[in-house]
Write a structure and sequence with these properties.
heterodimer, A: 503 residues, alpha+beta, D-Maltodextrin-Binding Protein, domain 2, Dipeptide-binding Protein, domain 3, 3 domains, globular, B: 304 residues, mainly alpha, 2 domains, 74% helix, flat
Chain lengths: 503, 304
């Protein structure tokens, strides 16, 4: 009798526990149109993928690359190749076993030009990937890699779900994805909700009993839903809702540091090619005054967040000095008519482009407009959508100033933003010194040297003032107190979600 | 017959102009769906051909007009447009139908009963009709939600199944949506005034006075004659109702065709935006053609 009773009791307890445990409900501004890590276009997709898929490596809680699908690995002495043994007992959501072929396939699919993967750049450092056994593979790199683990967190795809490495965006996988992650897709509704259920075959323990994404475009309504206990988590709280959520006993705010900083970019094709004019603008902007009403954060003097190892703390902030700014503008042939700076009968006027979904962007623009108006400079802001932004800012460079922010992953690679040949250097900034420093930082395999080079790059960029460096804002996630063990990743948010649980 | 053909031709022309207009607007708007990708420049050449962005404008317009809508580009990449828009269109149609029915029902009943000293409170109608639709929706939603919070905190009620509005589908959400649509977007006050004028005019006509003197009940002729005015009312209000749906859908998270059209325009999903424009134009113009044809037919019958 006892033999029968004990399993029965444990079974009943397990059943009761599963009945009590609820899935986590969270809101996103927009629902993903597709779930395929080859074609990630925004953070909403990246967060869902974090729940469904695994990478070779992932971040530990101290944000250090740690093996996920990898059992063991060895980096060659010349750091130009790496051998990997995969974890045993890992299965896809359809029950098939993970193999080295899946990893090789994923890398080749990302590199295949016909696939046109948005993630292709993440594997550009890999020249070849070959399976050397059912669960072992070898990667060869284009050059010596200081820390390849940091770059191997891209999500692995199941080879058996595709017919080749040339994959189109409309592949059926987009709405029926399978991964090896802690959660698997239960439903993907056209109404903007995605339901994930616990992967009971996952190689590690999963405490969270599923997750549900709800599309809620209105940020204020998202906050209300959390207060109404209709959601358990908000990925990011906008500053205006902080006080309300902070006052609610059922909600806990989780501050997290993002590798993200704001800036006012200047188009170097026009008046901003002149370093004195760039200095003048920087001196006219009172960054502290702009930051105060929109939230808390740290002002920055260059292209890294203050907590970054590459941040150069010796670089001094450019002082708010309107008098010197006026002098600089006057030396450029402008005269002040009592209201405006004028040259050749034209007032000093700039178009400032801002993305219409830039959080608190409108507040910042109004404040900048007010500050510059005080010193005789007119600002004409334009709020544009993402497609128009990419077209006018990135392609045609049809702007004087832009207000935006850059967000980086742990690698904090600013090469594309500040190298004269960088693909994201839309301001047109060019400096031989900075180019040389960034090139060396990319190729060095010495961590100390890399740190020193990027700190020097910070100094060099800061001295050139290609943009007005503003701040990094403190970000807050809001999570219901019914959620236990909640810890959020600053970039992918759900990296450790399997350890969460909802009462 | 000739009149029906004329109404049909106007409807067809409306559809062509609407689709061409939307295509031109999208073409003029800076940026395309490839711009929205992180590595736009690297994949532009490949995707322009794959997505048919190298096809001339007139060809895209022509394809849409013959019902060849193609595939979604950014909303649900690769999914057939028909699949993307079918469900939302059905939802929108149901709200639109219910909104139209409520509008005409309230306006007609209000117009008819005014003689019986049950005066419709004009001030109330005026307020709800002039308040912007989105504001009306926000007021109702927040009022209902905060009311529930206060009542549950006070221990008066338990949490209702529809709470909080409008997160999940519920009867209340449907009623609120249809109500706002009929009252706010379609301006119930105007509709009521329009039909009241018609009822007043009808009651002054000789046949109505004669019927009254014979002691015949008003319902024997009033509703039949009012049908013409209702047709005109519906035809006139159809575009406003559809336009209002875009706002109501957004505020009440309804996820109908209006929301999809908005998202398609922002995401530069040309095939989806064009297909919905064509369907909406056909919807409004086709309905007007049918209603005006019916009206003409009834008018001829009455004259005869």
């Amino acid at each position: 009798m006892p033999r029968l009773t004990l399993p029965f009791v444990f079974g009943a307890l397990a059943l009761a526990a599963s009945a009590i445990a609820s899935p986590l409900r969270y809101a996103e501004d927009g629902a993903p149109g597709t779930i395929n890590p080859l074609f990630t276009t925004n953070m909403t997709e990246a967060r869902v993928q974090e729940l469904l898929f695994d990478g070779l490596f992932t971040d530990s809680r101290s944000l250090v690359a740690t093996p996920e699908l990898v059992q063991s690995y060895q980096i060659a002495e010349d750091r130009q190749s790496m051998t990997i043994d995969l974890r045993s007992g890992v299965t896809w959501h359809d029950g098939q076993a993970l193999s080295a072929d899946d990893v090789v396939f994923t890398i080749n699919a990302m590199k295949d030009p016909t696939t046109a993967s948005t993630e292709a750049a993440r594997v550009s450092f890999i020249t070849t990937a070959e399976a050397t056994g059912p669960r072992s593979l070898r990667l060869t790199f284009a050059g010596p890699e200081l820390s390849p683990e940091d770059k191997l967190s891209f999500k692995i795809l199941p080879k058996h779900r595709f017919s080749g490495t040339a994959i189109q965006r409309n592949d059926a996988f987009r709405t029926n994805p399978i991964g090896t992650g802690p959660f698997k897709l239960a439903s993907f509704s056209a109404d903007g909700s995605i339901v994930l259920e616990r992967n009971v075959e996952y190689f590690a323990e999963v405490d969270l009993n599923g997750a549900t994404l709800r599309e809620v475009a209105d940020k204020s309504y998202q906050a209300k839903l959390l207060v109404y206990q209709s959601l358990e988590a908000l990925v990011r709280v906008v500053p205006r809702d902080l006080a309300t959520l902070e006052a609610d006993r059922g909600i806990e705010l989780y501050p997290y540091q993002t590798n993200s900083w704001w800036y006012i970019g200047m188009n170097h094709q026009g008046v901003w090619a002149d370093p004195d004019m760039r200095s003048a603008l920087t001196m006219m902007i009172n960054v502290d005054e702009l930051l105060r009403p929109i939230g808390t954060g740290d002002t920055v003097t260059g292209p890294f967040v203050r907590s970054s190892p590459f941040y150069n703390h010796d670089v001094r902030k450019v002082a708010h000095d309107p008098d010197t700014a006026r002098t600089l503008i006057a030396t450029k042939g402008y005269t002040f008519d009592g209201t405006h700076w004028v040259k050749d009968g034209q007032p000093l006027t700039f178009r400032l482009l801002v993305q219409d979904d830039q959080e608190v962007g409108q507040d910042v623009v109004i404040a900048i407009q007010g500050q510059l108006q005080r010193y005789g400079v007119t600002l004409e802001p334009e709020f544009i959508d993402e497609a128009a932004w990419k077209s006018r800012v990135w392609q045609s460079r049809d702007f004087d100033l832009v207000l935006s922010q850059w967000t980086f992953d742990r690698n904090e690679d600013i090469h594309e933003q500040f190298h004269s040949q960088g693909s994201r250097n839309f301001t047109g900034y060019a400096s031989e010194t900075t180019d040389a420093l960034l090139d060396q930082a990319r190729t060095t395999v010495d961590p100390q040297a890399k740190r020193s080079l990027l700190q020097q790059a910070h100094g060099s960029i800061s001295a050139d003032q290609p943009m007005v460096f503003l701040w990094t804002l403190n970000s807050y996630a809001a999570v219901s107190t019914r959620v236990q063990n909640a810890e959020v990743h600053p970039f992918y948010f759900f990296t450790w979600a399997q350890d969460w649980s909802v009462e | 017959m000739l009149a029906a053909l004329k109404h049909g031709a106007v409807a067809a022309l409306t559809v062509v102009v609407a689709v061409a207009g939307m295509q031109v607007l999208l073409a003029l708007a800076p940026g395309d769906p490839i711009d929205l990708l992180p590595n736009a420049e690297a994949v532009r050449a490949t995707l322009e051909a794959q997505w048919g962005l190298d096809v001339p404008l007139w060809e895209r317009i022509g394809r849409t007009l013959i019902g060849d809508f193609g595939q979604s580009l950014s909303l649900r990449p690769g999914a057939p447009v028909r699949e993307v828009i079918a469900q939302p269109l059905l939802k929108t149609a149901s709200w639109w139908l219910a909104g139209s029915a409520l509008l005409t029902g309230l306006a007609a009943v209000g117009a008819v009963v005014q003689r019986r000293s049950i005066r419709v409170p004009r001030a109330v109608l005026m307020v709800v009709s002039i308040v912007p639709t989105f504001l009306l929706a926000h007021l109702i939603v927040n009022g209902a939600n905060e009311g529930v919070v206060a009542a549950t905190d006070a221990g008066l009620i338990s949490r209702p199944s529809w709470f909080p509005l409008p997160l999940d589908a519920s009867t209340l959400r449907f009623v609120v949506a249809v109500g706002i649509l009929a009252i706010g977007s379609a301006s119930l006050l105007d509709a009521y005034t329009e039909l009241s004028t018609q009822v007043h005019a009808l009651r002054s006509r000789p046949f109505a006075i004669a019927a009254h003197s014979r002691g015949e009940p008003e319902r024997s002729w009033l509703w039949r004659h009012l049908a013409i005015a209702v047709c005109e009312l519906l035809a006139g209000r159809a575009p406003a109702l559809l336009g209002g749906l875009v706002i109501v859908e957004k505020v009440l998270l309804l996820g109908g065709a209006g929301t999809v059209l908005w998202d398609a325009a922002v995401g530069r999903d040309y095939p989806v935006a064009l297909a919905l424009t064509a369907v909406f134009a056909l919807w409004v113009a086709g309905l007007r053609a049918v209603l005006y044809t019916l009206r003409d037919h009834w008018r001829r019958g009455q004259t005869a």
